[in-house]
Amino acid sequence: MSEKLTFASERDSPEPVNLRPWKVLIVDDDEEVHAITMLALRNFRFDGRPLSFLNSYSATEGEIVIRENPDTAICLLDVVMETDRAGLDLADIILTRLGNTLTRIVLRTGEPGQAPEETIIADYDINDYKEKTELTRSKLHTLMYSCLRSYRGIIAIKKQLPD
Amino acid sequence: MTLKDSLVRRLFIFITLGVAIAILVTILMQYSSLNRTMQGIRDQNVDASLSNMLPIIEESMWAFDTSSVSRAAGALLRDPYISGVAVRSVEGELNLYLGDLTGSFTRRLIKTSLRTEIEDGGALLITTPVMHTFNGENTVIGWIHLRSDNELITSQVNLVLGGVIISAVLTIILLLMGLYALVNRNVAVPIKAFTDFVERSSEGNVSTWVVQRETSLEERSDEIGQLYQSFNDQRDRLIKHEQELLDYRHELEATVSERTQALRKSNTELSDSLEKLKIAQDELLQSEKLASLGNLVSGVAHEVNTPLGISITAASHLSSEARQVQQQLEQETLTKSELVRFFDECLETCDLLSGNLARAAQLIRSFKQVAVDQTSDEQRNINLHTYVEEILTSLKPQYKHTPIDVINDIDQDIVLQVTPGALAQIITNLVINSLLHGFDDSTKPGQIKVSSRSDRNTLSLNYEDNGDGMSADAQKRMFDPFFTTRRSSGGSGLGMNIVFNLVTGKLNGKIRLDSPVHQGCRLIITIPYTVTNDVIQDTAL
Prior knowledge:
The complex is a heterodimer of chains A (163) and B (541). Chain A is built from five helices and five strands, in the order βαβαβαβαβα. Chain A has helices at residues 31-40, 59-68, 86-97, 117-123, 137-160, and strands at 22-27, 51-56, 74-78, 104-109, 128-131. In chain B, the strands form three sheets. Chain B has a five-stranded antiparallel sheet. Chain B has three domains: 2-175, PAS domain (Beta-Lactamase, 2-Layer Sandwich), CATH 3.30.450; 210-375, no CATH class; 377-541, 2-Layer Sandwich (Heat Shock Protein 90). Chain B is rod-shaped.
């Protein structure tokens, strides 16, 4: 390897992505969670489509955003916000009151003791449950893939159905 | 016996005196009447003798028959009442003296034409004129003098009276004897028996008495019998009463001992249950302490996990990016702009990483101190402002989602020696209570403020919130153990009691509420404090 760093010639800037991005809603009261999530998923593509992020800093805010964006693919939802169970309540609202069964809801909790995984996954109609400390970049990516894949499938089935 | 002596003697003296006086009076009366009677009899006798002899003496005198006169005079003298006779004629040729004519009798031979009677010493002198009727004319021819001695009368009277006196004395003696026997039998003996009975039956205490009867008194219906009966009635009643009293006392004693027993038992039970209650309270306090520690742990764990999760994502993202760039570099496909972008991303990620790790470290540090302090009673010097700040930081998870401002307005220079755990627990409980009760509606903005004011010897730590406040009843009972307005939602009612105990016990201070009903909560904690110059700061940081 030469002493001097040689750079490859600049590639043509990738063709602008015109495909509709997957909407990902982040609901968390911690700003830095938003920042790191967006950072880690910046270059993520699924089916060639990038992600677009919607940011909510409380459950109340999250409810408004998802009401306005029913085509949200994934909702990364913190549990403890205004109350100890604000996230769980929002999940319930999305599924029952808003009747949105398409959006994949993933709970991200800081303290599993306050929202134990097994009971939560059994009692609430959510798609996945993650502890904040287990979400490495690759796991985050894996999570995105699996969620978007099932979201894509559901959308396809829904389109085939007459109603 | 004095009663018998005095009563019987007095009775006898009275009776004897009475009877003696009565007899004396009778004797005196009899004496005079007897005297009179005897004198009457004598007069009759003398008159009868005189009237028998007078005609003979008159005729004999008239005929100067001296011997007849003498015989007649002798006949007169034979009368037992006549002790002496003198017959004298007017001319004096006849002077006849017969019998006892002693004394002054001769000098007193009166010449009178009328019959005269003269009392002379122990005798009666009777002078009768001898009258002779001649040619229808009464002429005194002589006198007959008679002397009647009283001796006969006196001896007769004395005879009669002597008999009377003897019989009276005998009567008195018999009467007294009879009376004595009667009184003795009917009064003295029964009284003595009664007295003996009373003495016998009254021996010892009333409580030892039994119903007794005296056979000799039982049948009597007189006054003594009645006395005996009423005494017995009284005594029986007394015995009965005493028995009742005794029974009642026994009953009372039994009741008292029963009650005492019951009282003692319930007292023991009470102290047992008090002991149990104390243990339970201690356990509750302990578990409350642990529960608040548990709350703290889970709150802090959540708080720590968030920056840790961010850090993990950041670190893994960084390594992934680095690996990609490394690969591009090896394959010589790395463009300059990509490297620049990589460095930008590296810096951005590292900022996030170090910021969040520092955040986690800070949380762990303050949590550790507060947690250690909450379980330890060790005293140390702390800077009040800094320490309260740490406590508030560890409590931040509880209020950071609410629109409530928590302000630490404590003087930054106050250093004091306290049990930090107690202070931490106090502040924790107060803040939790404010959040739970004062700011129940977590959407309304509010304020909690901790401030200080120190003077020479004391430090006032003022805690206030502008929440809903308390009712008058809740204010009055806020420090009572187990008083809670949130029993249904799991309040133990121990929070403020713990605060009270810690302030008065561990901090040796006082706490008082200084806020109107239903208008916020302002508590003033006063603790002893001396301003020291040699400030050895051993704060948690």
